[in-house]
Inverse folding.
């Protein structure tokens, strides 16, 4: 059984930084596409950043130049470095993993496994 556990959320002020980590346990090919999504109450889950199986990285326009996604395949760990945080980044952040490749459009259909989420709150 594949499980994803996110850590690193918290509360920061505008302009601050946080680093999220997602550890994957179970039988999982660390080369498979993995990504970060976020969701606020009443809104749909949206893609933030992903690393595809071929290494291609995609960011949502709203986080480009501020967030950096990276992965340690050997340790099956995914990271999200978030800098210059703004209140609009406040959300529950979820880690997700696919069985191979995922869609460049952040389609949820491309992902098989999800973590429980970690809350990020940015105050003004």
């Amino acid at each position: 059984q594949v499980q994803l556990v996110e850590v690193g959320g918290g509360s920061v002020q505008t302009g601050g930084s946080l680093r999220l980590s997602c550890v994957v346990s179970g039988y999982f090919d660390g080369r498979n596409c993995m990504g970060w999504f976020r969701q606020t109450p009443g809104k749909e889950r949206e893609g933030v950043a992903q690393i595809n199986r071929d290494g291609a990285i995609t960011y949502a326009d709203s986080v480009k130049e501020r967030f950096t996604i990276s992965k340690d395949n050997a340790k099956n760990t995914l990271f999200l470095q978030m800098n210059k945080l703004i209140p609009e980044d406040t959300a529950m952040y979820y880690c997700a993993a696919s069985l191979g490749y995922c869609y460049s459009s952040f389609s949820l259909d491309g992902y098989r496994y999800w973590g429980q989420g970690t809350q990020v709150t940015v105050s003004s």
Remarks:
- The CA atoms of residues 65 and 83 lie 9 Å apart.
- The radius of gyration is 13 Å.
- DSSP finds no helices and eleven strands in the chain.
- The mean pLDDT is 95.
